[in-house]
């Protein structure tokens, strides 16, 4: 059967995947000229209605031959069958396929793409496929959301693996889903709650917080260099922070002044491997920009983070049993924060390897959650 009859209709009674048509062209243009599409995809920068019609014709050729398989996305409840985006299955050798997708602005933020992704992956597996791979430009959290929700495992960051829309190669995130994998999230996506006490607010980091970043002036053996952003590393640092939360391994708050909301530093609860939900122990970390020191902000922020870490999951907390920390023995300010938070120093090393590679004394701390009896 020729296109469009060759396109199987896939639906879960919320979204419907169907053949593209000429009627979709204007909304294709709207999607392709949207700022988010331009930022994260390779769509031509001067996209026109004629290009949209040419693209629909190319999609038809793919279905009529051995090319890629693309569906238009719409809501089942929409009697007007409005185009809300596209999803693209690209068959490769040995039962592997690659997936690509994008939504019209009106279709975003409602979980529609995750539904479409499950439908297409199931279509591929039912046809004998073994695996579906996902790639996105590093930093494209919006693309990782549907892949995560559909059960994809985040595998790695690949250097210079995809082309940027403005030209050149950029790093890519890579994830994969196998035929026998459950099409459900593997880990929790951590969202930092807003917490406030004594003039200090903990909140999620924002893109604009980079304006508050200050050059660090602490001894290099106190904190890993990559843990603290600088003006030059801000964008990369924020991408890494958002990724670890999207993978469930950390909750990272911006420490902010409660009155001005200006960024003062960071407090985080994290695990080095796996996800926070996998175990009962995590590590506490914190730092302040130089101008924010001396007002007790780290002490207040640590107390708020500890409270959230030990609060039960039913109460919206992390439900942890134990927190740990490690400090340089001569970091008196950090040691005082831990002492004020109730931590106990349980161990001491005279020749520990510090974050900067030097060797010196270090202290180990822990704190147990209050009994919930």
From TrEMBL:
PROSITE patterns: GNAT. Gene3D superfamilies: 3.40.630.30. Residues 15-176, 200-370 form the N-acetyltransferase domain. GO terms for molecular function: acyltransferase activity, transferring groups other than amino-acyl groups. Pfam families: Acetyltransf_3. InterPro entries: Acyl_CoA_acyltransferase, GNAT_dom, N-acetyltransferase. This is N-acetyltransferase domain-containing protein. It comes from Knoellia locipacati.
């Amino acid at each position: 059967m020729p296109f469009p009859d060759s396109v199987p209709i896939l639906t879960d009674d919320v979204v419907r995947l169907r053949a593209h048509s000429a009627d979709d062209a204007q909304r294709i243009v709207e999607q392709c000229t949207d700022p988010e599409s331009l930022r994260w995809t390779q769509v031509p920068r001067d996209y026109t209605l004629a290009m949209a019609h040419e693209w629909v014709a190319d999609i038809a050729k793919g279905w009529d031959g051995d090319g890629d398989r693309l569906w238009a996305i719409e809501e089942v409840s929409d009697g007007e069958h409005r185009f809300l985006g596209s999803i693209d299955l690209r068959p490769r050798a040995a039962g592997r396929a690659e997936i690509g997708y994008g939504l019209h602005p009106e279709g975003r933020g409602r979980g529609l793409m995750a539904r479409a992704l499950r439908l297409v992956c199931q279509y591929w597996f039912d046809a004998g496929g073994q695996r579906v791979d996902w790639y996105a430009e590093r930093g494209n959290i919006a693309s990782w959301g549907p892949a995560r929700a559909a059960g994809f495992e985040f595998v790695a960051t690949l250097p210079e693996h995809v082309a940027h829309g403005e030209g050149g190669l950029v790093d890519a995130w890579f994830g994969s889903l196998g035929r026998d994998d459950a099409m459900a999230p593997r880990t929790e996506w951590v969202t930092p709650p807003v917490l406030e006490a004594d003039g200090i607010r903990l909140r999620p980091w924002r893109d604009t917080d980079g304006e508050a970043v200050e050059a660090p002036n602490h001894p290099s053996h106190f904190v890993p260099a990559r843990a603290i952003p600088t003006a030059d590393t801000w964008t990369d640092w924020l991408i890494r922070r958002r990724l670890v939360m999207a993978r469930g391994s950390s909750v990272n708050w911006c420490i902010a002044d409660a009155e001005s909301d200006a960024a003062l530093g960071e407090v985080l609860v994290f695990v080095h491997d796996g996800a926070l939900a996998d175990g009962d122990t995590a590590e506490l970390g914190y730092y302040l920009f130089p101008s924010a020191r001396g007002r007790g902000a780290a002490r207040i922020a640590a107390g708020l983070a500890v409270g959230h870490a030990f609060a039960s999951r039913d109460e919206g907390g992390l439900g942890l049993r134990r927190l740990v920390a490690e400090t340089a023995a001569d970091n008196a300010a950090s040691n005082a924060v831990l002492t004020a938070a109730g931590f106990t120093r349980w161990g001491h090393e005279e020749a520990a390897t510090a974050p900067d590679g030097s060797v010196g004394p270090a202290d180990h701390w822990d704190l147990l959650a209050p009994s919930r009896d």
